[in-house]
Design goal:
The protein folds into 2 domains: about 120 residues, no CATH class; about 190 residues, Nucleotidyltransferase, domain 5, CATH 3.30.420.10. The chain contains 13 helices and 7 strands. It has a 5-stranded mixed beta sheet with strand order 5-4-3-6-7, with helices on both faces. A hairpin with a 2-residue loop joins β1 and β2. α10 packs across α11. The chain starts with a strand and ends with a helix.
Amino acid sequence: MFWTRCATRWLLPNSGHGDACLAPTCCCCRLIDEDSSHPFFRRGLSSLFSKGEAIPTLKALSNVLHPSNQNLTPTQKIWQRWHFKLGHIAYSHIQKLPLGGFLDRVSMGLLRTRIADHPKCSACQFGKQTRLPDETTSTIKREDHLSSLKEGQLKPGDCIFCDQLESRVRGRLLHAAGRKPDKDRFCGATVFVDAASGYIHVEFQVTLNATDSINALDSLERSILHMGVVVNSYHTNNGIFKSKRFVHEIMKNSQSIRYSCVGSKWQNGVSEGAISIIASRARTLMIHAALHWPEVEDASLWPLAVSHAVQLYNHTPSGLPDGQAAKVLHPMVDILSTKQAC
């Protein structure tokens, strides 16, 4: 159990069906603050999302983009809507989409809207929190070493960075109805990142042993083989990737594998950064669902949130010259545009 600080209040996450951001800077919370009949003012935060009290809370939070909400301008509502559709990406990223011709400049009000004018998202306030660095340690980024881990990896498949993430909350299987015991549910996933294109592929696993990791490896190679890409080498941390069975599978496919030094996880920083991005976006999506649909909120659905975050990451145009990461991986594949995907 942990506590989260929001503005001047301490909120308890496990207070029923999720958190309610009551910071006065959030556009959705000003709607609640203006209504003195809201259950928070009568019985406190503990009953805000409890069973039987979710309906007034849901109505208050779902009116953020409603035309009757006077706290947001019409242009801000458009930006907020695309912020939700694209998986809570940064507003600076959304601003690049009209410049690239993916969104309409006039409807986005690009010429008269500044980044400071964009509304704050209550889900992002919770889901994207990070630990503040201590004041005793200083980190200096050397410009000459940026992207050095990807240096020389010019073609998709030249090098695949991979690492594993683990969840203490067991995830529901994608083909089951949720009645499987905990031992048969997902406990984590293996994350693969292509060095040349930045394409991310996630394979969920019931266990993180060598057998399931090899199955995840085979699934990755079959998936990208349909795009005409063949894997030549891998870069991983130690652990299960150094087991005899895993190394034998690599050698059998005439591939090479490189490991990070002990205690030097930064050498596998490409996959570490991908896990950080996907976990942050998936967590924000889960919190957004809990805020807007608390009656059906289920923490075991995190594999679906991770899959959705990966799909949006691969297909949302970025700063790459050719647009999406999936399109860079295989230019002949017809990738849906942002407008079509949303």
